[in-house]
Amino acid sequence: MLSQRAKSGSAFNYFDYFCDMNLLAVIKYIINHPLNQNHKFHAVFRFFVWQLYKKFFSFPVILPFTDKSFLIMRRGAPGATNNLYCGLHEYEDMAFLLHYLRPEDTFVDIGANVGSFTMLATGHVGASTICFEPIPDTYSMLKQNIGVNTNAEKVTALNIGLGAKPGSLKFTREKGGMNHVALDTDKDIVEVPVDTLDNIMTGKSTKLIKIDVEGFETEVFNGGEQTLSNKELRAVIIEFGLGFQFGFDEDKLREKFLKHGFISCRYDPRKREIFPNEKGRDNTLYIRDIEFVKERVKKAAMVTVNRNIF
To answer: Is the residue at 102 inside a domain?
Structure first.
């Protein structure tokens, strides 16, 4: 049975699942991705070349991500290879980051995984990044990706989790991009230190937060009220849909964003336009001071990704 998030349309985060279950579903997703519309053959070709490569070779390779950044491709790291097939596997959110951030900004990446968003923010844009990845093996891959990009000195990578209070939490460690705070039924877990977002951000400010912590977002922002209140923060990219696992009512988190002056939006990268978000989307862009944000994205430099310029 598919997970709730896969059913709702975020299927490509579950690439390995679909590859095992339905190859045609993977191919269909790849050719229908917005950045592959004019390059469908090349997209499918990249997919099969990588399948052959990882069948016969085990060592990683460094490949271009955007025209200014790189990602290390390796077995067992779909967070990177998804971008190989589609350019930007979370197209709207990643394109928004590329158009919105500036080199003088600070970006916060919560649940960085191997660092796709971090590489765009710092490797491409040149912004400073504070990123969090609690799983030791994944953190190691994150650090390697940081190291092969320019501006590596502008990244602060922390091998910790975030929560409502300092302490420690147990995490799964064998689920790749879907690792999460461990439930009672989970096995093969690792205990990691935890701090609050407000503690880490004391004396700092950020223009953009991206958070993907597999349902634990509510607890992270319970420890991030001051950060959320800081008017320098104009946008948050957040994923909903899995909070029920921990007993969280995610509508309360949505209400918290509204209370702080954010509105739910979506972004059209080609037109560089921001629209109200339709109800039910799992990945949501929350924006405060929308006129400021609109002006910024319109003035951003063009970006080249997989033969696309936008």
So the answer is: yes
Range of the domain at 166: 88-303
Spell out the per-residue pLDDT of the chain, length 310, in tens.
334 444 333 444 444 444 544 888 889 999 999 999 999 999 999 999 999 999 999 999 999 999 999 999 998 787 789 899 999 999 999 999 999 999 999 999 999 999 999 999 999 999 999 999 999 999 999 999 999 999 999 999 999 999 999 999 999 887 777 888 888 888 888 999 999 999 999 999 999 999 999 999 999 999 999 999 999 999 999 989 999 999 999 999 999 999 999 999 999 999 999 998 876 566 789 999 999 999 999 999 999 998 899 9
Q: Name the pTM for this structure.
A: 0.91
Whether 19 maps to a domain, the answer reads: no
User: Does residue 238 belong to any structural domain of this protein?
Assistant: yes
Distance, CA of 81 to CA of 223 (rounded, Å): 32
Domain count, the chain: 1
